[in-house]
From TrEMBL:
Keyword Ribonucleoprotein: yes
Taxonomic lineage: Bacteria, Pseudomonadati, Pseudomonadota, Gammaproteobacteria, Enterobacterales
Protein name: 50S ribosomal protein L31
Quaternary structure (record): Part of the 50S ribosomal subunit.
Record key words, sorted: Ribonucleoprotein, Ribosomal protein
One GO term of the biological process aspect: translation
Source organism of the structure: Escherichia coli
Family to which the UniProt record says this protein belongs: Belongs to the bacterial ribosomal protein bL31 family.
Length: 49
């Protein structure tokens, strides 16, 4: 097997605009700022800023 070809899978912080903060694992490599998450009511997904 080849060494060092897989991306690092590490814990990051995903922050939603509603204020919800989640610790997730990802290969992104940096923290994420999300527009919506599972705690945002579906009716708000249709509104525009």
């Amino acid at each position: 097997m080849k060494k060092d070809i897989h991306p690092k899978y590490e814990e990051i912080t995903a922050s939603c605009s509603c204020g919800n903060v989640m610790k997730i694992r990802s290969t992104v490599g940096h923290d994420l700022n999300l527009d919506v998450c599972s705690k945002v009511p579906p009716v708000l997904h249709w509104q525009t800023a």
